[in-house]
Amino acid sequence: MAKRQTEVWTLNTMQSNFFLRTKLLPPRAAPELLKRPRLTEKLRANRNSPVTLVAADAGCGKTTLIADFLRESTRPSVWYQLDHTDADPIVFLNYVAQGIKNIHPNFGEALFPYLSEANEDLIRFPERAADLLINEILRFIDQPFILVLDDYHHIGTDTIVHKIVDRILQYSSEHLHLIITTRDLPPLAIMRRRSQAAALVLTRDDLLFTDGEVRELFRNTLNVELNDAQIAEYRTRTHGWITALQLVRQIAEREMDGDAQTLDLTDILQRSEKDIFDYFAEEVFSRETAETQNLLLYLSLLESLPLETCSLLFPDLRCSAALPDLAQKNIFLTVAGDGGHSEEYRFHPLFRDFLQRRLRSEIGQASVAAERNRIAESFLAEGSWEMALPFLLDAENFERAADVIATRGNDWIAAGAITSLGTFAAKVPTEFLEKFPRSLLHKAEIARLQGETDASSRLLHRAVKLLQENEDAVGEAEALHSLASLARRRAKPDEALKLLEQAEKLVARDSETYLKCLNTRGLCLIVEGNWNEAEQQFRAALELAETQSNEQYVRLIAHNLALAPGFRGDFGEALRWFNRIFRDGTPDKQLPQEAIGHLNVARLYLYRGEFEKTETHLTRALDLCQLFNLKSLLPEVFETYANFYREKFDFAHASEFYERSLNAYDDAGVDLATRELNEERAKFFLLRGDPAKARGLLETLIESRQKLNNELTINTAKLCMCRVDLAEGKAESLVDAIQELLEFFHRQNHFYDEALTSMLLAETYFTLDKKKEMVAPVQRVLDLSARFDYEYWLKTEIRRNRGIFEYEDVLEKLPPDLREELGAAPAIVAVASPAVSEILPSLTDLTVKVLGHAEIYRDPTKPFAPDAWTTRRARDIFCYIATRKHRRVPKDVLIEAFWGDEEFDAIEKNFHPTISHIRKALNSRQAFKQNFIVFRDGAYQLNPEFTYKIDTEDFVNFIAAAETAKKDKNNEEFRDNLTSAYNIYRGDFMEGLYEDWAEEQRPFYTEQFSRVLNGLAKLSVSEKRWADALKFANEILALDPYREDLHRLVMKVLAAQSKPAAVKKHYDDMLELLKQELGIEPSTETKRVFNELNK
Amino acid sequence: MTMTFSLHENFGPDGACERVDPGSFNSKPTIGTVREGFSILREKLRIPDTGNLVERPRIDALLQKSCTQFPATLVSGRSGTGKTALAATFAHSMENVAWYSVEAADINWPVFSRYFTAALRETGRANAIRDGENGGEDVSENEIARFLLRAFSTSYAQQGPLLIVLDDIHHLFDAPWFGDFFNLLLHSLPPETHLLLLCRSRPPGPLWRLRSKQVLNVLDEKVIAFTIAETQSLFASLDIASGTECAHRSSFGRVSRLLQFVAD
Lengths: 1095, 264
Known about the structure:
A: mainly alpha, three-stranded antiparallel beta sheet, B: alpha/beta
């Protein structure tokens, strides 16, 4: 299902006008290509680092070098030829994703749907898309590949694409190597990291031909053997500039075809590079036929030359025959593609400039403009408006350009090409845009998306006036609606509502604009606190959206419709709306905002006690949080997980997730002072019988919330505090405070809070033995529970407060099924216990136990099953990394340890998949996916962002602590630390594994354990704990049966226990063992001890 | 636990998400000025299609009897007790029905009264109320009385039997005008008009006076719960042969639980 969905998304996205398949085709090899091993070797050596940057002027051979390198590389690669339209992040990411999908068909499951709907989200949070791309690479790709961004300079400096590339470089896995070719140094962070050797930068100096390469060029392509002096001369004259050398070579080739025996270009080569180029270009150009010259001149108007496009635009020029011929002759044309009509030709950039200059001088500026207009109209006739616009702008046909922007702007924006549209619109003088005022709407939208709200507002006001003059009622209504949106965002709902009223009068009641107005009106009313009318508006909008059969609108409005019932505590009603979005069995839309939806649905189910559904939606929310790296939402998901476990009385997990939530809030930089987390934690502490801790949290919370003057949240915290007071037996003073809260929640129509408060009031009356008074609040509880289906909560309360519900006047009001709850097992009630933090373990993300059989845990209750690892080697490699110094192993060391005897090809094939197996194993059956293995600076290591508990580290640390304690003569600490070390050691290091690396480490730990036992045995003797002494000594002897010192100790202990027969037997057994196994007798010392003990 | 929602302002490029907390707005959240001429949602005025699971002649007879003996019937039961289904089945058997599914957002009198009027109009009978004449937010008892008088004008009442169904009327129980409306409505009903009220809990105020004066008949969830015989019919219609008694016992005859039992 998921795969088919991806295909649909991909198709939809890629059918956009903005996608040209040829941009993902690498250039084909030129017929006479000079190999440059000194450079390709550098590239090869750097391919395990994140990036290679090739930065040099036009004509230095960047593209040729990289294309040649890729042809010889065993790694799969993606070629992406950029132009100015790729400055739009959506366009850029679509190409990158499609390129990767071409080599990994499963790729893009989440990315394509996101890109098809991201738009504003992507502009506001570019790193989110980058994270999604990185996560998908991690998820789907287990073999390294190379991504080439060719001609990166085309996207300019003012684009958020750089942020995306930076993010990819910063966090990408070792599987992605990026090669960027560019004429200018891009504004990327790698430029700052160059000194750290994180990026290889090949510059013009690197690309210039060496003497040897000049010799090879002439030898291979012309079969001319140059002498040293000639080589030195050519190199000096051309500075090794490959274009000049190629020009020389081409002319030489033709000279030689004409039987010229000598080649003297000394004068030419003394000129500047531009002159050299122009001279040789003129030479090459003039040798072509008039027909070919004409073709080249007119084609120079096009940025790229897809064969089909060329044939369409220049039907008389025989492009399909001429272009392949020119490419074959290598006349400044390269070709990408695999033959046929889908091929694309590309001019050498310098040659295109040359041809354009020449065309201008031959036919004049006006004719060039006319030709551009003709091309533009051809594109427009084909529906390729985005292709037409640059030609109109180059021809300075601003009126037509403004017309295209006005009529096609919506499509442009919908395709996500906002940057392109903005750039084009900026080139059209205002007077022309104003002739087509709808173009101002699009310009305003771009300004708004770029955060320039004042500029956006000015443009919209102007648009309203002009559209009114033009009697374009729909356009005017759109402009008014956009102004209303701006006003709402500026918290001016009154102004927004007036604008919407004007807009609505201009359009039909079944139009899309009217629908937008209804929805925006609803949002304005929420800002005003008028929830009821907001609901009315959303309902009307929903009905209209359904009439228009627009699923996207239906989803969005259904989400908004859930707002009011959710807040007032009508959870069933809220779920009814959410169910329009999250129907069981329908595939998820993998969009960041869906995470919020799932989180809310999970909360609603939790309120209703539907735990299975709660967990399902929480898992989905968590997945999306991780997929999009939604840092601000992640803590709320953890918090809800914690509440979920709290409700299930699984306090260990609840505690773990509260701690995760705290950490995640910290990571997201969110001030916790007023957040709900502390209120929830207070409830947790109260439930665990620690009201003092709950009180502390609540006092701080109320104080912070009072500063914000947020009455509702102050009162929810106060309600919790009243519960603490009651738990601490302070019922006397509570009634008034609770009554006040009750009135507040009732007034606000917060029914759930009202029900909780009524119940608390009843409890308080019950505590005060005022049973008659408690009947009314309980009646309200029953009434609200019936109205809003709080049955789960009510049942919990009935079990918790039997005394109240068994009271005669209350009991008679209970329906029979609820009366049954009185007979059910009591709910767990708060029991005074040690402070929770003292009894619960601190948060550990991963536990690794290798002393004994290897066991790795994320859930502390059960280790990963062996089949989670796919291969045993994957598990062993993980253990190897985890137990090395700094939990880090260089890649080559890893290969040597695990693939030492294998062929390079086998290693290449198996290495990365094995690392993927480890990552997947560590996330198997885990809701919370984490990348525990990172690749940094040539080494694999445990991700330092997480916390680990590794038994070898603890073991060694306890021994070290024991030694310190011994020096300090602190027997108690000495014994505690030794005992801790003893408890950790479950058996041999990586028991059952007989690989070299494990066997090398094993004796160390065995030896250490022996020391622990020795220390414990001796300590036991000194403390006359004979049984312990014997136990520890025998354990050492089990490890090393020939240690006579231990045999002597055992005999002494036995003697101390007055067991002479046992002493004698032990000695005899030892005698026999030494004789049989080693052929020796006991030492004199052992004999002496025995004799003494035997007296 | 606190709710967090994303807000979708617009569509296409303007579909941003924002965090909305319930406490973000300190203004009173329930009562606001209602715009004149807001859209009437036809869906709320349609008799719901609940699917006729199983015939319940006992309930039909009860309702039929109530129609003949009382001007109004109140069916009270918690969520999942089958109120709407039985009322819809009954309504489908009647010729003239004005159905109105009340929602929480209808707690404002201008909204409620417009929907109430619209529901009556759906029966094809003209009434004397024009939009804008319903009364404002703070409607008085007199205004409600005048409203009902116009709603049930003489000419209107002469057009034959009518069933008015107000579903989920518990959403209005906390409205300041509800008590007046409830009492006046019961006493304003024209002859041959029966009012069927559906709600999850009982309306505020004592009902005994209304019951004793034969104005209102109350069917609570014990009455509408499935009997063992009805449960057997239901299970037979679903081709389930066993477990009827167990299901009936554990569900207390609550239809949603019976169906859950079947699903499990």
